[in-house]
Fold this sequence. Notes:
This protein is globular. It contains 20 helices and no strands. By secondary structure, the protein is mostly helical.
Amino acid sequence: xxxxxxxxxxxVGNDGFWARAWVAPLVLAGVGGLMAALTAGxxxxxxxYLFALFTVVTFMLGGIFLVLIQFLTxxxxxxxxxxxxxxxMSGAPVVALLAAPLIxxxxxxxxxxxxxxQGEGEHGAHxxxxxxxHGVLGLAASVAQAQGHEAxxxxxxxxxDEGHAHTAxxxxxxxxxxxxxxxxxxxxxxxxxxxxxxxxxxxxxLLYFGWSRRQDDDHDPKHTLRMQSLAAPLLIVFAGTxxxxxxxxxxxxxxxxxxxxxxxxxxxxxAVAILAATILIGLSLYKRGLVGEAINPVHFHDLAKLLFGxxxxxxxxxFSQWMLIWYAxxxxxxxxFHKRWGGGWMFVSYLLIFGHFVAPFLLLISxxxxxxxxxxQAMCLWVIFIHAVDIYWFxxxxxxxxxxxxxxxGALLFVGGVFFAYVFWQLGxxxxxxxxxxRLQKSLHHYQTH
Length: 450
């Protein structure tokens, strides 16, 4: 038996890789920060930073959800893998610090990524350029093209803009839609809500992580009972804050657009992200013998089944959002999808269809594939990559035609590097398994009969 396997407190100890794992993402964060700061202006950098920040936010939110749902259901199978999720969740204050530059930039007007509703709602100005271009962009033609009635014009991105003249009625309608939302969409309210979201997430994360760590030392089951009793109401709070944060930070980039299911789409992506990350980190710890058999192929199979289920759920809600908007044919809704079909974004849209659903569905549906740890590791890496593409597809079409810039990569390296440097550092400080949880023994002897 190796020294790692005889480590009964499940700590990283002197393991060469995990003892210094936080260094690499921190270096990448420094390189990425320089890349982003030196290659883009304030507006383009704002879009890139929002993309990077919200990508990381989804991992943290997925962690909160997974921890709360495990306590709500009192499930024992996931106890041994829960510490990984708790550590990711505990990065909520780090996310708040990373969000501070964006919030400050939006509040002071130095990051003009929400300039349309900021300009119209707070100053009463009707933009002649971006407002008309992005809000009422070919309303009638957008609906027709979205429903497949524009024969001979598919793929003609520039022709659509030139071929549809905005009438005074369309422009007026667009401004009236935004004006009606100014009670909600204004800089002061947006800023206050952003701070509230981050505070709520940080409080939930730190409370649950703190109680779980305290239980490592005193093995008192009262901590489990407390966390179980609070899980249901906190899940309601979590669902509300996630939904409205998705509305505020992503959906309001296109202020005339609306989708009541948008928060569910973001939630599904968050669940996919945290499950893939948990499997990847758990596989690394398992292969290095740092968790013994406390996390074993049976646990990875269960996590993979959840991952597969949430990939299907993401597909269902994403398709439902598109189908209902296509079917209704409401101009203010159709323009959002039209923007993600032109300007080179068609390729990204197809990539999401096949990369976020078709490929993972076919390559993870088999039980044999889920139990093949090397195969599962490769699939989780792909799922995390395609999840980042999904967030990119939400944000960057607002900046114009598809063109990956160094600022996009740099911002993701910076925000992701700082966040995961914290996660890896924290994993090196705490037991890798919640050793005080009263249900741990059941999790250690968890097995499947099918």
